[in-house]
Design a protein that fits this description.
InterPro entries: 3-oxoacid_CoA-transf_A, CoA_trans_fam_I, NagB/RpiA_transferase-like
CATH architecture: 3-Layer(aba) Sandwich
Order of helices and strands: HEHEHEHEHEEEEEHEE
Number of strands: 11
Radius of gyration: 19 Å
Largest sheet: 8 strands, mixed
Mean pLDDT: 93
CATH superfamily: Glutaconate Coenzyme A-transferase
Distance between the termini: 61 Å
Strand content: 25-35%
Low-confidence stretches: none
Organism: Catenulispora acidiphila (strain DSM 44928 / JCM 14897 / NBRC 102108 / NRRL B-24433 / ID139908)
Structural class: alpha/beta
EC number: 2.8.3.5
Number of domains: 1
CATH topology: Glutaconate Coenzyme A-transferase
Enzyme class: transferase
Number of helices: 6
Shape: globular
Pfam families: CoA_trans
Helix content: 10-25%
Length: 240
């Protein structure tokens, strides 16, 4: 089955307002920036987004946030986005914070059809409020529900027409589990190859989890640095 979509715009054209999205990436690493930009142009609003963070003010999910398109964020880290903090403090944005491992495992569980699971993360904190707990072998655990989404947006280094994906280095962060959790998963790929060109041992996510594949146009393959840190001249070896 050929799952390729002609353009990013067509790949996200049917995402409705008030949809739930699982979005891959960590900070600005491995984010589906092309699909996010296409969704911004598409105009869907009132979105509930599940992602490790919300990008920065002028890139990634921060673009949708600045445009007032996101109603709720479920994240584990929000520290680099001032507009996120402003909207939350002003009561304009609903926020659910989860421990990072819990967020990843909840997405994975959703993709595998596991409705809930027990974890020790968050016991005794505000994360545990209103949640069932049980004791196993003398240790207390929280019952966390799986997360599924109407759509998932992810980015991969390579993909084939069947939806098999390969992620580059640390871009293999939240992308696989976000893809698994989406009922309809859209993957943007930097390189599209024919079925059979990817060695089975290279495939990080099988195509059964992916419904659409779109190639990132060459002029849209820019990759931002979230925090650039440089060494001052003359201090390379500890000199002042």
């Amino acid at each position: 089955m050929d799952k390729t979509a002609p353009t990013p715009a067509q790949a996200v054209a049917d995402i409705p307002s008030a949809a739930t999205l699982a979005v891959g990436g960590f900070g600005l690493c491995g984010i589906p920036s092309t699909l996010i930009a296409a969704l911004l142009e598409q105009g869907a609003t009132g979105l509930s987004v599940v992602s490790n963070n919300c990008g920065v003010d002028d890139w990634g999910l921060g673009l949708l946030l600045n445009a007032g398109r996101i109603a709720k964020m479920t994240s584990s880290y929000v520290g680099e986005n001032k507009e996120f903090a402003r909207q939350y403090l002003a009561g304009e944005l609903e926020v659910e914070l989860l421990p990072q491992g819990t967020l990843a495992e909840s997405l994975r569980a959703g993709g595998l059809g596991i409705p809930a699971y027990y974890t020790p993360a968050g016991v005794g904190t505000s994360v545990a409020e209103g949640k069932e707990t049980r004791v196993f072998d003398g240790r207390e655990y929280l019952l966390e529900q799986a997360i599924t989404a109407d759509f998932a947006l992810v980015r991969a280094a390579k993909g084939d027409r069947h939806g098999n994906l390969l992620f580059h280095a640390s871009a293999r962060n939240f992308n696989p589990v976000a893809a698994m959790a989406g009922r309809v998963t859209v993957a943007e790929v930097e390189e599209l190859v024919e079925p059979g060109e990817l060695d089975p041992d290279e495939i990080h996510l099988p195509g059964v989890f992916v419904q659409r594949v779109v190639v990132v146009p060459l002029d849209q393959r820019d990759k931002r640095i979230e925090k650039r840190t440089v060494t001052a001249a003359g201090t390379e070896n500890g000199a002042i």
